[in-house]
Design a protein that fits this description.
Layout: E1 8-19, E2 26-42, H1 45-53, E3 58-65, E4 78-81, E5 84-88, E6 93-94, E7 102-109, H2 112-115
Antiparallel strand pairs: 1-2, 1-4, 2-3, 3-7, 4-5, 5-7, 6-7
Length: about 120
């Protein structure tokens, strides 16, 4: 896949728990998992209606280059693009030819739970 087809920098974040060594207190926060080249596009009205028919809140898609790190992305993570958070809706889908060229992430607009660290 040519780099020009993936013009956006996409940050993937994961929710982690850390424990304070002194107090033992556990804190939860979003942390950068990886930053990749990709292309984020809003869905057409037709695609949004089809998603709603199966109770999906998907409103955009993001295509990213396949890599061993990208292959670890799952639906518990979120996407940050141009200051907006997106929930990954379902598992990433590999390309339909080799399965090793790109992944497609179905995205739903972020909700307050996904936008803030807890």
């Amino acid at each position: 896949m040519k780099a020009g087809k993936l013009p956006h920098r996409i940050r993937i974040e994961t929710f982690i728990e850390t424990q304070d060594k002194k107090t033992g207190r556990i804190t939860k926060q979003w942390s950068e998992f990886t930053t990749v080249w990709g292309k984020l596009e809003p869905l057409s009205t037709k695609d949004i209606l089809q998603a709603q028919a199966i109770n999906s809140k998907m409103t955009a898609r993001c295509k990213i280059r396949f890599s061993s790190k990208a292959n670890q992305i799952d639906s518990t993570m979120r996407v940050l693009f141009r200051g907006k958070y997106w929930k990954i809706d379902g598992e990433p889908m590999p390309d339909n030819e080799s399965g090793l060229e790109w992944l497609t992430l179905n995205l739903a607009e972020g909700e307050s739970l996904w936008q803030q660290s807890n």
